[in-house]
């Protein structure tokens, strides 16, 4: 899997720009604000049809313009392919080899990505929703069916919430509908639970080994916390019925897979509360390296690795250890303000793109 060319039109601060002739190891340097991260963001967008920087697609459109387009050319199994994402006031459109895709699930993950970013400390420090969203993205890169099941589940929760609000106002409504929708929620929830549990179990096999590469002898583990831990349909039906009065009083579904969380345990304590920010960064790095191994070992997938200004956050010893842990067969994109942050041996193996000296050009 190798990206060969990227074309950007009205994307962030780029009007019309082409960057190409990538190798396996690519270093993108430039001052802050010139658009280094935007290059990585376009690669991420091409894989998942969403940005990692915000929840609003329209923020990616260059100021003063009404639409953006990215086009990415790559090889997969020695076959040349291209994908395209267009975002305008009518929404988002995607193409594969110039053919419009009707479903987003058919478009995503034509190639896979693994992002390393200083901002991803929020996976540990932020809300359960942030953690769920992160792992939903990772699992959806491995199983296209997962995102379909998850969307169907969320629609059921939305319908259930609407009915629960009606029950708050009119207690005489027949609750048999809840029996039906709860059983469907349980069926889909058990599938989601299985995907999530198995993914976390696979990460945990190797996460300590990668953590120890950073000279950390402590023990870390990701614990998947779910209402569905009982993993038994009839028991879940009983629990849902027991919680029904509470949910009617709240006017919302308070029990289910949509409330899952992930705890990053550090020596059997939650790292969110009991480890330093420096340790949390290394935990995230270890997890990412373990995830790459999961992609390769279990699914024969080599993700494209995006290292966004990561080296400014680490000392030289830990920077080198990341590269020691990454397979040479992976295509890697690195952004940095200064190549002095990177070992000369690594620079000698890489192709360097200096955005401070870029010439704006675009080929149709």
| Residue fraction in strands | 15-25%
CATH architecture of the largest domain: Up-down Bundle
Strand arrangement, largest sheet? 2-1-4-5-6-7
Please state the CA-atom Rg, rounded to the nearest Å. 22 Å
Number of strands: 14
- Helix count equals 12
Could you please say which CATH topology of the largest domain applies here?
Glutathione S-transferase Yfyf (Class Pi), Chain A, domain 2
User: Could you name the CATH class of the largest domain?
Assistant: Mainly Alpha
Low-confidence stretches: 359-364
Q: Could you describe the 3D structure shown?
A:
The protein has twelve helices and 14 strands. The protein has helices at residues 36-48, 104-107, 122-125, 128-140, 144-169, 176-213, 233-242, 244-250, 271-274, 277-299, 316-325, 344-349; strands at residues 2-11, 14-20, 25-29, 68-76, 79-88, 91-96, 99-100, 113-116, 220-225, 261-266, 269-270, 304-308, 332-336, 351-354. β1 (2-11) and β2 (14-20) form a beta hairpin. α4 packs antiparallel against α5 (144-169), α5 (144-169) crosses α8 and α6 (176-213) packs across α10. It has 364 residues and is α/β, with parallel strands linked by helices. It has two domains: 1-112 and 302-364, 3-Layer(aba) Sandwich (Rossmann fold), CATH 3.40.50; 121-301, Glutathione S-transferase Yfyf (Class Pi), Chain A, domain 2. It has a six-stranded antiparallel β-sheet, covered by helices on one side. It has a five-stranded parallel β-sheet with strand order 8-12-13-3-14, with helices on both faces. It starts with a strand and ends in a 10-residue tail after the last strand.
């Amino acid at each position: 899997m190798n990206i060969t060319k990227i074309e950007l039109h009205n994307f962030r601060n780029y009007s019309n720009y082409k960057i190409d002739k990538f190798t396996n190891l690519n270093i993108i340097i430039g001052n802050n604000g010139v658009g280094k991260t935007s290059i990585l963001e376009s690669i991420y967008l091409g894989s998942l049809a969403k940005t990692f920087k915000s929840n609003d697609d329209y923020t990616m459109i260059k100021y003063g313009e009404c639409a953006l387009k990215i086009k990415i050319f790559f090889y997969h199994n020695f076959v040349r392919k291209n994908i395209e994402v267009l975002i305008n006031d009518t929404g988002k459109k995607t193409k594969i080899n110039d053919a419009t895709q009707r479903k987003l699930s058919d478009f995503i993950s034509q190639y896979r990505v693994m992002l390393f970013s200083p901002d991803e400390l929020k996976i540990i420090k932020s809300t359960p929703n942030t953690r769920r969203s992160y792992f939903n993205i990772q699992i959806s890169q491995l199983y296209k069916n997962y995102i379909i099941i998850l969307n169907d589940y969320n629609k059921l929760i939305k319908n259930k919430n609407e009915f629960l609000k009606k029950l708050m106002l009119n207690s005489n409504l027949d609750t048999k509908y809840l029996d039906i929708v709860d059983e469907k929620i349980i069926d889909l929830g058990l599938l989601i639970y299985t995907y999530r549990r198995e993914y976390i179990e696979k990460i945990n096999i190797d996460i300590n080994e990668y953590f120890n590469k950073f000279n950390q002898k402590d023990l870390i583990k990701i614990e998947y916390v779910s209402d569905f831990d009982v993993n038994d349909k009839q028991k879940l039906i009983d629990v849902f019925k027991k919680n029904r009065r509470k949910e009617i009083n709240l006017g919302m579904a308070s029990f289910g897979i949509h409330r899952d969380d992930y705890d990053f345990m550090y020596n059997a304590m939650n790292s969110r509360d009991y480890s330093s920010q420096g340790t949390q960064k290394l935990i995230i790095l270890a997890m990412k390296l373990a995830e790459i191994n999961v992609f390769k070992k279990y699914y024969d997938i080599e993700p494209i690795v995006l290292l966004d200004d990561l080296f400014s956050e680490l000392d030289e010893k830990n920077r080198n250890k990341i590269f020691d842990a990454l397979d040479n067969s992976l295509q890697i994109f690195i952004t940095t303000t200064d190549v002095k942050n990177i070992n000369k041996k690594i620079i000698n193996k890489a192709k360097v793109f200096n955005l401070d000296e870029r010439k704006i050009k675009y080929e149709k």
